[in-house]
Specification:
The chain is an alpha/beta fold. 32% of the residues lie in helices and 19% in strands. The strands form two sheets. Strands 8, 9, 10, 11, 12, 13, 14, 15 and 16 form a nine-stranded mixed sheet that branches. Strand 12 and strand 13 form a beta hairpin. Helix 8 packs across helix 12.
Length: 503
């Protein structure tokens, strides 16, 4: 066997070890396990492969190295990468391109002509005259008619944006079936990802509701690597220790952790929010000034930030959508305090002199003043489109220097609600004022089901608070009756420094 053939026979694990060593990286056991599986299945001419691994496991990077290894072994291969969007697919192609440029085994594959070395497609030096490039990136919605490939890699084709409705789940399956017309006879199709829905394309059960008689990827050779193995141990202990796993579980919440880290998607349709996990309290806010700074206290804890969310509507609470305003504070220990919730209504008897929108904006201004809130986010979908300008005018008239943040909600409401409440309720970190529990909010929380017809206006407003980033304002001397309601917040102080130069 000559030197060239010996080099060509380098295994995938060795190929990746050489790359990692050159990058100053170790090769963890979980990556070795994936490499051995990929190389074994490729050597057995397995044409249908499914790799499921937890988020941040490095699976896409490994599949990129696998692609470079395939081209190293056979430069005449054509590899198509399909992802949920073009940017994600292009990311893998660019990664493989950099590997080929820098890996000691593949530097000779780079072509002489730069027009064959683009960011979303490239063609290595090869002996065959082929119309399609060596590697090409496509989004799941792109036109792929006329393409041919020896290997098709479906990298994270299932994400929330491609599976959060029945119509999208059907369309995703239809798009993926087109791969059969792209793949050459005897070619390999490989899926890489994590499940994002109970009726996932990766499920071992058929999606009976849309007429599936067999699982979508029935017959695929599978490798599943959850974060925690059957023995209760981390599959990557060097990076995810027991303490790190518990911290991740607390931050993400049970549903997201089970789906993205344990590869067991929770069915939101069967889920409810645990109202019993709310921690009630009766205390009022305590505003204090000392030594030129302001503090806001609650239950003896200093509050660090605040979020205020307005989901506007002109309807009365008992008729149609309610116009709900919510305020959530967070303390320095990471707990959340749902302190105030208003189901606002306008007075129909005075609309001739003060229109509905102005009435609601004035109530918002009073709310911000009463609870020392530095900003309010207005959901501008629907009627909220012109409200921020009107609200700024009313805040100016009221003498309040508070910010108005505009937000357009594009995600499904039930996903926002689950993402906002699941983790904080499971961790026991959401406190609710007694006045909030006496409002319709508690009934909404207890009765809520994704896709249900019950009211959820209060839940949506509070979810907005929990998901939004707090607005940090400079700390200045507060005026108790005054204009800047957010000056109690720590950590953003302004100060004067003496200098020895002049400008």
């Amino acid at each position: 066997m000559n030197t060239t053939n010996r080099i060509r026979n380098i295994g995938l694990s060795e190929f990746i070890w050489i790359w990692n060593r050159g990058q100053g990286l170790a090769t963890p056991h979980i990556h070795i396990k994936i490499c051995e599986w990929l190389e074994r299945k490729w050597g057995q001419d397995q044409s249908n492969l499914l790799l499921l691994a937890f988020r941040n496991s490095g699976k896409s990077s490994l599949v990129g190295l696998f692609s470079a290894w395939l081209l190293f072994r056979n430069p005449n291969l054509r590899i198509l990468v399909v992802a949920a969007d073009f940017a994600l697919a292009g990311k893998m192609v660019r990664n493989v391109k950099r590997i080929i440029e820098r890996h000691p085994c593949t530097v000779g594959l780079k072509p002489k002509r730069m027009d064959q070395w683009a960011s979303d497609r490239f063609t290595v030096r090869r002996s065959a005259e082929l119309r399609d490039p060596s590697m090409l990136a496509k989004g799941i919605g792109a036109n792929v008619t006329g393409l041919r490939a020896d290997v098709v890699i479906c990298d994270d084709v299932e994400v929330p944006n491609t599976c959060d409705t029945v119509a999208k789940r059907i369309e995703l399956r239809q798009r993926l079936r087109e791969i059969d017309f792209i793949l050459v006879p005897g070619g390999t199709q490989m899926y890489v990802g994590t499940p994002h829905h109970h009726f996932s394309i990766y499920s071992t059960q058929p999606y009976a509701a849309i007429g599936e008689e067999r699982p979508f990827l029935d017959g695929f050779s599978r490798l599943e690597l959850p974060l925690i193995n059957a023995l209760g141990q981390s599959n990557w202990p060097e990076r995810f220790s027991a303490e790190a796993v518990e911290a991740l579980r607390a931050r993400s919440g049970p549903a997201k952790f089970e789906s993205q880290m344990m590869l067991r998607p929770r069915n939101l349709v069967d889920g409810r929010l645990n109202a019993e996990a709310l921690r009630p309290y009766d205390a009022d806010l305590q505003y204090r000034e000392a030594n030129g700074s302001a503090r806001l206290m609650l239950e003896g804890r200093r509050l660090a930030s605040a979020s205020c969310w307005w989901d506007p509507s002109y309807g009365l609470p008992e008729k149609g959508d309610a116009s709900v305003l919510a305020a959530v504070f967070s303390d320095e220990t990471g707990c959340y305090w749902l302190h105030a919730l208003r189901y606002m209504r306008h007075d129909p008897d005075i609309v001739d002199s003060v229109d509905e929108a102005t009435q609601l904006c004035r109530q918002v201004a009073q709310f911000l003043r009463a609870f020392h809130l530095p900003a309010v986010t207005v959901e501008t979908n629907g009627i909220g489109r012109f409200l921020p300008t009107l609200l700024r005018r009313e805040l100016l008239r009221a003498g309040l220097d508070a910010s108005v943040v505009e937000h357009v909600s594009v995600r499904a409401k039930h996903l926002r609600i689950v993402e906002a409440f699941d983790a904080v309720l499971a961790a026991g970190r959401l406190y609710a004022h007694r006045s909030v529990l006496d409002s319709p909010f508690l009934e909404e929380l207890r009765d809520w089901r994704p896709g249900g017809r019950g009211r959820d206006d209060g839940l949506d407003a509070v979810a907005g608070c929990l998901l939004s980033e707090p607005v940090r304002l400079p700390r200045m001397r507060a005026v108790a009756t005054g204009g800047r309601p957010g000056q109690w917040r720590p950590g953003a102080g302004a100060f004067r420094a003496d200098t020895d130069f002049t400008v």
